[in-house]
User: Fold these one by one.
Assistant:
Number 1:
Amino acid sequence: QSVLTQPPSASETRGQRVSISCSGDTSNIGRHSVTWHQQLPGTAPKLLIHSNDQRPSGVPDRFSASKSGTSASLAISGLQSEDEADYYCGAWDDRLNVWVFGGGTKLTVV
Amino acid sequence: EVQLVQSGGGLVQPGGSLRLSCETSGFVFSSNWMDWVRQAPGKGLEWVANINEDGSVANYLESVRGRFTISRDNVKNSLNLQMNSLRVEDTAIYYCINARAGWGQGTLVTVSS
């Protein structure tokens, strides 16, 4: 069981918007920055978001994120078939002294 | 362009050792914490270890503490993970990562007799 809680799956229609949630507590999300990572099938993860809401160079602005209290969310607008992937949130945890990840959300674009 | 290029890994028997390396470019390596994260077959992401900017502080996952050692060379902009006393449950793809720059391509470590 992961320290950060994500829905195991999400599904949305091409062109629409989807939001993926990530729930933690005061020892992780409540105190530290959240990162989001995209893992396409059979490939290495890719950094999508750092510092709660910052996109690295090259990440389309269709991807956005926010944090409030002990929860965070990733939003993807204008869904494309190539967005089908596993999405993971992550944050440092002061109580466990480890970087914790959510269990991942498998996104299907229909 | 940010690049994290990994090397090392492979097949090793239980109790054996391996050394992973990660050569970086495109960001100021010496000003950043660096991490290793692993992913067992069909599983999610699991953080393994990290190291601070000058190498004076390292943190480890409880199950690898005392067996794995993370280190860095700020002249060569490289990160290393020395893995000793490997166990079957250490089998995974290992990734180097900087939380603001990105991920390495991953390297498979298989521990099996």
Number 2:
Amino acid sequence: QKEVEQDPGPLSVPEGAIVSLNCTYSNSAFQYFMWYRQYSRKGPELLMYTYSSGNKEDGRFTAQVDKSSKYISLFIRDSQPSDSATYLCAMSADKKAAGNKLTFGGGTRVLVKP
Amino acid sequence: KAGVTQTPRYLIKTRGQQVTLSCSPISGHRSVSWYQQTPGQGLQFLFEYFSETQRNKGNFPGRFSGRQFSNSRSEMNVSTLELGDSALYLCASSPVLWTGQGSYGYTFGSGTRLTVV
């Protein structure tokens, strides 16, 4: 079983709907949580970064972390066709070992239909 | 401001050959990390370099190696290529080696698509 699980989708929603994405994880040491968006033939682009539990909002994006349930979510409000992409969650454990060693979920493909 | 530049964008190699991929970080960035992305395994961490020193290494065989030059540009090398090495290889750069303090500053490039036949 993978450390980070993510439904591969595809998740198809009409334009203007709320997109709800989530990841579950098994490693209780994870404390840093990210959400990335990846368009076809492009590298991942950081959307949200959260430390520990709680909510964080940035424009149309809201990230939630529930460490007690080992569950993180990303919500996209007022979705647009340009939001059609693969969304990846990523996590990092205690930063005793500095650096960019992230554990990624497999990604969820999202399609926003006009 | 130029982003992270990876060359070449596409590459086709034969089993048993070796390959070198290049990553030029954003100007002023000193940390470069490398990831492999495949449909089956997703994104997996390979290694990270900061100030010409390897700081972290993932669980990949010794056929995968890298280095960083004094201008922060980085290369990764894969020797004795196998079919399973076919993947998108991504590098990400950051001004500093992330310690969890402050913002997370890594930016990914668009990757090099390696096909092994």
